[in-house]
Amino acid sequence: MKVLIVDDEALARERLVRLVEAIPDMRVVGEAAEGRQALLQVERLQPEVLLLDIRMPGMDGLEAARHLAALSQPPAVIFTTAYSDHALEAFETSAVGYLLKPIRAEKLAVALVNAQRITRAQLPEVDDQEPRRSQICIRRRGNLELVPVKDIRFFRADHKYVTVRTGEDDYLIEESLKSLEEEFAMDFLRIHRNALVARRFIRGVEKDAEGRAVVLLAGVGERLEISRRHLAAVKMLLTGAARDDSG
């Protein structure tokens, strides 16, 4: 079984490599020092299991696991950490194991064998209250890119794809608008059956040449249509923002 080791400490990675390579039928195919590197390595190496540290600089292990869970065929994840306070949150990301450092060889062997038996159909459902991602994983020109959610102006559905618009660029993802709305409800407002806009970038409402209400967003010239059923919510948001500014 192919194993990817992710830990920001080189000595910890070296020790895990030795432990894994001593277990029959297990092979270390790569290493990464933080979550973003791990995602890129998963794309390139297609490991079957990750030994994933939680507390790392940049993207931590919990967020990396949430990105991995969105893949069509995600690797199994075993968290390796010196802290026990993330256990519940770790399993909410559909992790199949949780090992506390210093990791004992026999416990690692058991965890890897268990991971080998896991199929995607056996993974538990991710809890509805799992933390939101801070970045969206994008595939573009064969590479993986990470787009900060704080830079996104809107999500717009178009057939099987969703356009992700920042101030400078457009990206396409295959996630559903409904799932994005559920995950980012605190930050994005639905204005139409096909669009979610970032609350923090809404600047106003006007009518276009055809008399339809459209939303004005900071940083983009594009105007998105607001459906009648969602117009009141947009106006209420603007009214509340105006009160906050004046008060």
Produce the secondary structure layout:
Elements: E1 2-6, H1 10-21, E2 27-32, H2 35-45, E3 49-52, H3 61-69, E4 76-81, H4 87-91, E5 97-100, H5 105-117, E6 135-140, E7 143-148, E8 152-158, E9 161-166, E10 170-173, H6 177-183, E11 188-192, E12 195-198, E13 202-207, E14 213-217, E15 224-225, H7 228-246
Parallel strand pairs: 1-2, 1-3, 3-4, 4-5
Antiparallel strand pairs: 6-7, 8-9, 8-12, 9-10, 11-12, 13-14, 14-15
Helix pairs in contact: 2-3
Task: Summarize the entry for a quick read.
By secondary structure, this protein is of the alpha/beta class. The chain has helices at 10-21, 35-45, 61-69, 87-91, 105-117, 177-183, 228-246, and strands at residues 2-6, 27-32, 49-52, 76-81, 97-100, 135-140, 143-148, 152-158, 161-166, 170-173, 188-192, 195-198, 202-207, 213-217, 224-225.
Give an overview in words:
With 247 residues, this protein is of the alpha/beta class. It is 31% helix and 31% strand. It has two domains: 121 residues, Response regulator (Rossmann fold, 3-Layer(aba) Sandwich), CATH 3.40.50; 112 residues, Beta Barrel (OB fold (Dihydrolipoamide Acetyltransferase, E2P)). It contains seven helices and 15 strands. The strands form four sheets. A five-stranded parallel sheet has the order 2-1-3-4-5, sandwiched between helices. A five-stranded antiparallel sheet has the order 10-9-8-12-11. A three-stranded antiparallel sheet has the order 13-14-15, with helices on one face. The relative contact order is 0.09.
